[in-house]
Amino acid sequence: MKCLLVSDSHGSETELSEVIERHRGEVDAVFHCGDSELSNDSSILEGVHTVQGNVDKPGEFPEDTAETVKGVRVYVTHGHLYNIKMTHIPLSYRAEETQARMACFGHSHHPTAFEDQGILFVNPGSVMQPRTRPEQTYAIASFDESGGAEIRFYERESAEEVTDLYASFPAGTQ
């Protein structure tokens, strides 16, 4: 299973569209972790699992979603309702409730990937407004048949991999 993860595009339609179209043919699903600042009928978000961010128009998208993609349960939320800038623990409880293998979030604009209690946590960063690094980033998560995963981060404009953010999670390490 392979999915594209984007977040915090903050109304940048052209840039978001470029990233999605660049990878749409090679992934099984596309997730936007909130703060798109687009309407739910935007053609850019067609076929994209999108959640509500703290600056999105209230009620435009669901607060969270849990989808199973090729056998991998993916939970997505923006993170502001789970205090994600301080700790991942409240989010971990919700991810566990949804039986997620991967929990995706945004809000902090900080690209990261880590595993805790068998759940992968991934923040793809921001495709437009990075905070802790200079790169405008997004991520691609890949799961193999044994359950192992790789998270690769890319710079938005060049599509070059940001190799120091790469994370690998072998199967059975939960």
UniProtKB/TrEMBL annotation:
Main enzyme class: hydrolase
InterPro entries named among the record's database cross-references: Calcineurin-like_PHP_lpxH, Metallo-depent_PP-like, Phosphodiesterase_MJ0936/Vps29
UniProt-listed SUPFAM superfamilies: Metallo-dependent phosphatases
Domain Calcineurin-like phosphoesterase: 1-145
Cofactor(s) listed in the protein's UniProt record: a divalent metal cation
Molecular function per GO: hydrolase activity; metal ion binding
Keywords: Metal-binding
A family per Pfam: Metallophos_2
EC code(s) of this entry: 3.1.4.-
Coiled coil stretches, renumbered: none
Top-level taxonomic group: Bacteria
Family: Belongs to the metallophosphoesterase superfamily. YfcE family.
Protein name as catalogued: Phosphoesterase
Gene source species: Salibacterium qingdaonense
